[in-house]
Amino acid sequence: MKKIRWPDTCLFAKMTWPEIKEAAESGAIALVVVAQIEEHGPHLPVDTDVLIGETVTLKAAEILKKRGIPVVVLPTVWSGYSEIDVTRFPGTISIRPTHLANLLTDIGMSLVRSGFKKIGFVVSHGQNRMAVEIAVRELRDRAKAQAAMFIFFSSEIDKKILSSKEVHGGEGETSIYLAVAPEYVDMEKAPKEPYVAKGRKASSALQSGLCWWTTWSVQRTKSGIFGDATLATKEKGEALIDAYANLLADMLEEYYRSPYVSPEEHGEG
After folding, report:
1. Could you report the per-residue pLDDT of 127-155, keeping only the tens digit for each?
2. What gap in Å lies between CA 187 and CA 68, rounded to an integer?
3. Among 88, 97, 116, 154, residue whose Cα is nearest residue 32
4. What is the CATH number of the domain that holds 251?
5. Is 1 a member of any domain?
6. What is the pTM of this model?
C-alpha cells in the first residue's frame, strides 16, 4: 500500500481524498486556524494574524508528530470580524460574526462528514472568539461532534519574553513577523503607542474577569497599533513562536487523549 504523506506534511489541502480518509480513521485532529486580514500599523502587512496563526499551528503540528499524535491542518480562514475602529484603516476585511460562525460550523460539518471525530479551531485574532465558540456549540448540537477552541496567546509567556504590553501590532507581533518574514517588515516606520487604556486597571469588574469591554472603546490610536513596535527583535519572535507552539501542542495533546461523552450518555446512570 502506498505510504500516505499526511504524517509528514499534515497539510489537508495537499492530500488526496484516500489520504484524508485514512487520516480521519487514524483519529487525527482536524485543525482550522481562524485569523484575519486587518491593519497592523504602518510597518506590518495586513496578514499578520494569518502568518502568526499558521506559523504557530504548523510548529505545534510538528511537535505533536514527534509525540505520535496525528493532526491535519486545513487552509486558514483568513477573514474574520474586526470592529469599526479597525476598519477605518484601509486593508481590513471584516465579515459579520454571525456569518463567520455559520462558515465555521459548515466547515466543521464537512469535516464530520469526512470522518473526523475531533475538530480544533485555533484562534489567532481575538475578535473571532465569540464566533468560534458559537460554532463549537453548534457542532455538538447539530452533529454531536467534539469540537474545541484553542487560543495560544499567553500573558504569562509574554511577560517572560517581552519588555512591553502586547495588544495589537506591538512588540510581540512585530517580533514574530521579523522571525518569519523580515523582508516584509519596515522597522523604520515602527510606531510606539503604549497600551494605556485608562480605566481598565482601575476597574474591579474587569480585574475579576466577570466583565469585559473592548480596548478600542477606551483608548485611541493614530497609527493603528497598541504597543511599542520599536522594541521588536527576531530573537524575541523566535522565542514567542516556540513557547506558543509548545503551549498549543500541550493543549491539543490533552484534547486528543480526552474521552468523548455523547449527549445520549448524559441520560444514563
Report:
1. 999 999 999 999 999 998 899 999 999 99
2. 40
3. 116
4. 3.40.50.10310
5. no
6. 0.91
